[in-house]
Specification:
The complex is a heterodimer of chains A (about 150) and B (about 240). By secondary structure, chain A is an alpha/beta fold. Chain A has one domain (about 1-120): Beta Polymerase, domain 2 (2-Layer Sandwich), CATH 3.30.460. In chain A, about 20% of the residues lie in helices and about 25% in strands. Chain A is built from three helices and six strands, in the order H-E-H-E-E-E-E-H-E. In chain A, a hairpin with a 7-residue loop joins strand 3 (about 65-75) and strand 4. Chain A is globular, with a radius of gyration of 17 Å. Chain B is α/β, with parallel strands linked by helices and about 240 residues long. Chain B has one domain (about 20-195): 3-Layer(aba) Sandwich (Rossmann fold), CATH 3.40.50. In chain B, strands 2-1-3-4-5 form a five-stranded parallel β-sheet. Chain B has a two-stranded antiparallel ribbon with strand order 6-7. Chain B is globular. The N and C termini of chain B lie far apart (about 70 Å). Classes of the chains: A alpha/beta (about 150), B alpha/beta (about 240). Chains A and B meet through loops of A and loops of B.
């Protein structure tokens, strides 16, 4: 863990901190997202585990509604461990896709787009995965009403 | 969403031409009884099984509560079947598919809502993606309450359906079933489990004694009681006293 963190700290100065690592994953600017993933893939993190999106509504007077996207990669060797970092974007922004690097990211990112509403820039086929095609809204938004009606079925 | 019941027709098209023959009505009454008996005792089931109720439905088809004993055969296609058993939560995405499969079944057909999710949605009822009860998309004849209902209750539900079919074919009025007040009420009316003989457990232990099952446990003592090697409980009880 410390080894890869030291490598990342030298490669991306100011983003990763080898001495005091963020326990919930380092916050990476969106334009360095793909570069971090490519660097980790070259250093043995070849397994794409998951992508986790969450919606942060605007809080306070100056707050801006944001999406936070966490990506988890795993090093599939004997002493394997998972590595996670986070990207924060405004609601109308886009996270660069990881589909060219990891083919398994395709449906994972479609799921996050479907339920949370995060847009992945450059994704080859960004359609809904879980919900019906004609669904309106993204149900994991914090302001989505749980009793939303969908006639004629509900 | 309402359900159009006007297309339901239980009359066979042969009847209209047959009834013109003199003296045939006596024979037709017998034939009607025969058809009623056949429809009641050959309920082929289409399992619209989406979640954990499906596991309990498999249990009902297995040996202890055997659905085959009443002519119930489970077929994985709607076109062969008389009864659709909706076992599990139906989501908004699944609902058009359920409706399509129900429309593909030939008349006469019946529907059983098995489990609290199919009856009313239960604790998923208020969620954006769940249909609040399968009777909002197709007519339900029998409700089987439970979460999930055990295999006995599946049997009770099918017996209730047989009773309904018999009464309908005899031309009697059958009160339509209502949604149960509490979808999780457990009301087993027939106790198939009571048929198990008293010494069957002991005989099963006897049969498994020579198979080497049980890992560290040994059943070699004569009275059939499972004893753990080491006898921890004996020494612990003695030391505290």
């Amino acid at each position: 863990m410390n080894e890869i963190l030291a490598k990342l700290a030298t490669e991306f100065p100011g983003v990763f901190d080898a001495e005091n690592p963020d326990p919930s994953g380092a916050l990476v600017p969106a334009d360095q997202h793909v570069a971090v993933a490519a660097f980790l893939k070259e250093n043995g993190f070849t397994k794409y585990v998951t992508v986790v999106g969450s919606h942060y509504p605007a809080s306070g007077d100056e707050g801006v509604a944001e999406y936070e996207v966490g990506t988890v990669l795993r090093n599939p060797t004997r002493n394997s461990f998972a590595f996670m970092w986070r990207v924060r974007i405004p609601m109308d922004g886009e996270v660069p896709t990881l589909c060219p690097l990891f083919a398994g990211a395709d449906w994972q990112e479609r799921e996050q787009f479907d339920l949370v509403g995060v847009r992945f820039g450059g994704h080859p086929d960004l359609r809904r995965l879980m919900l019906p095609e004609d669904w309106e809204g993204h149900p994991l938004h914090k302001d989505y009403a749980i009793e939303t009606a969908h006639p004629p079925w509900r | 969403m309402g359900v159009d019941e006007t297309y339901r027709n239980y009359e066979h098209p042969l009847y209209a031409s047959l009834e013109k023959m003199p003296g045939i009505t006596v024979g037709l009454a017998r034939l009607d009884q025969l058809l009623q008996w056949g429809a009641r005792n050959s309920l082929w089931v289409f399992p619209m099984a989406t979640s954990c109720c499906a596991i309990e439905f498999m249990t009902a088809a297995a040996s202890r509560v055997d659905l085959d004993q009443m002519g119930t055969i489970i077929r994985p296609t709607p076109r062969h079947c008389d009864v659709m058993v909706v076992a599990g939560t139906i989501t908004v995405k699944m609902a058009p598919r359920v409706k399509k499969l129900w429309d593909q079944m030939p008349e006469p057909k019946w529907c059983i809502a098995m489990g609290s999710c199919a009856i009313s949605g239960d604790f998923y009822r208020d969620i954006y993606s769940v249909v609040p009860g399968v009777d909002t998309i197709c007519p339900v004849d029998v409700y089987i309450p439970g979460c999930p209902p055990n295999a006995d209750q599946v049997m009770v539900g099918l017996r209730r359906l047989q009773e309904k079919i018999q009464l309908q074919r005899e031309g009697k009025w059958v009160e339509p079933d209502k949604r149960p007040d509490d979808p999780r009420t457990i009301l087993p009316e027939i106790g198939l489990y009571d048929r198990r003989e008293d010494d069957m457990t002991e005989r099963q232990h006897e049969a498994s004694r020579h198979l080497g099952v049980g890992g560290n446990e040994s059943r070699d003592n004569d009275d059939g009681v499972i004893s753990h090697q080491g006898g921890v409980s004996e020494t612990a009880g003695g030391s505290t006293e």
